[in-house]
Design brief:
The longest helix has about 35 residues. The protein starts with 14 loop residues before the first helix and ends with a helix. It is mainly α and about 475 residues long. It has one domain.
Amino acid sequence: MLVSAENGQLGGYNKESLYRKNVVMRTILTLLCLFVTDVAYASATSGNAGSIGQTSTWLGALALGIFVIAYVFVMAEEFIHLRKSKPVMLAAGLIWIIVVLLNNSAGQDEAALRATLDHNIIEYAELFLFLLVAMTYVNAMTERNVFEALRAWLVNKGFNYRQLFWITGIIAFFLSPVADNLTTALLMGAVVMSVGANSPKFIGVACVNIVVAANAGGAFSPFGDITTLMVWQSGHATFFEFFKLFIPSVVNFLIPAAIMHFAIPNETPESHNEHVELKRGAFIICLLFATTIVTAVSFKQFLHLPPFMGMMTGMSFLFFYAYYIKMTAPDDHADFGTFNIFNKVAQSEWDTLFFFFGVIFCVGGLGYIGYLEIMSSYMYDGWGATQANIAMGVLSAIVDNIPVMFAILTMNPEMDNYQWLLVTLTCGVGGSLLSIGSAAGVALMGQARGYYTFFSHLKWSWAIALGYAASIYAHFLVNG
């Protein structure tokens, strides 16, 4: 997920941002061109079973080009302030027009095309409903001041910079599996911005640590990141199997954190006396969210129903409790009487939800044309699962892990549980290698503008890469 321009609080342009834009865009375009060249080479040596095999046509190339251009716009969201859902939704529509034209020109039956379309619709519907419930709960907890109270508590404790570095990182690591990496990064980013106003160096390094911690924490929980959720819903790993990634995730967080620790000033910031009062029902809503998670897991594990059914059932818990809050509110307290849960639904990150629609249908269309079959043959058959999964993690730092993981699930290579957990790990933490590789990084570049930048993160990419390699080795030792 990527944060929207409005929610990221983006400011105006300056020379640094324009220079960074040019460097990032050149890098992305170069890597994408190399990737497309590899795909073109693989098309000459691989079959197109399971697709219409039209990658060599000019329309097939046009479809791939549309997707690449759309994703360049997505990556440039921080600079051009165009919400990421817009280019990918347009690209999805254009790609499927091309899919129909290619399907007709190849003389293929419409049944196969319809089956692919239906599959994509089901994938999106399950993801959409699951995330809608999670976002609604997070919005309700935010409105009840749950996260603000946590931030104020940390600010008031008077910790020194190094203690705050580790505290915010550890909290991000353990909060991300429940609240997702984007929400976690924004919350912890607000803490370091508040206490580190007089130490720009602390803010920059602490933000890098938060990004790494949030992504690492999200990798061992189906609720921590979209990629883990997609793998869980696809049935390639059970809920409790994801916790096999806990130790590799810890390693991924601790190694770069230990290295960056020595760059943190050994000073104590000025303490604040800030008090945030929890609104009525805050703890109950947190408890209901935990109950909803248990319900979703139970539906999947014991009833073999998709997790979104459990989440939607859990949404009803919140609906009824919101009704209780409203009906039992004191007449003289307007805040209690106006708690409307449907407002929390409306405040969901719709840009992100529509972005997923565009990504799923773009990748699904390219898969039907034949590109994913080529990619699977070139990488998974040619390189082997381990090398391919490690490369996919690195690619997710450039392209974003969501389309990468959906492409892998659509290709559905023959892999055992160890390899599915490996690609879950690499796609989950690989985005930490660059600030543009994850929702957490993009969000903090907007929130901590001028303190946390692409190049301030790139400065520590070597340490993050050490953690990335070590986490893969830890996975081999623990689960191999």
